[in-house]
């Protein structure tokens, strides 16, 4: 079953340690967000549908062309 529900939770920036809240589509791909503190572009994804603590990693794979 496909759901368009958004999961609301928090992530911690791996660069500066700032914690922020974000909504990520349930079951969707990682969402790209910028840290509101250091402005590093991060990919935030859910580890499981029930998780409220999201996984954030630096979005270095997306080079700008
Ligand atoms: Zn940051």
Distinct ligands, ions and cofactors found in the model: zinc ion
CA(first)-CA(last) distance: 36 Å
Major beta sheet, strand line-up? 3-4-5
Rg, Cα atoms, Å: 12 Å
- Please state the structural category: mainly beta
Order of helix and strand elements from N to C terminus: EEEEE
pLDDT averaged residue by residue: 86
**Strand tally:** 5
Number of helices: 0
Stretches with pLDDT under 50, minimum 5 residues: none
Strand percent estimate: 35-45%
Please state the overall shape, judged from the principal axes of the Cα atoms: globular
Largest sheet: 3 strands, antiparallel
Helix coverage percent: under 10%
Task: Tell me what the structure shows.
By secondary structure, this protein is an all-beta fold. Helix content is 0%, strand content 42%. The protein is globular and about 30 Å long. The chain starts with 5 loop residues before the first strand and ends in a 7-residue tail after the last strand. The chain binds zinc ion. The site of zinc ion has 8 residues, from loops.
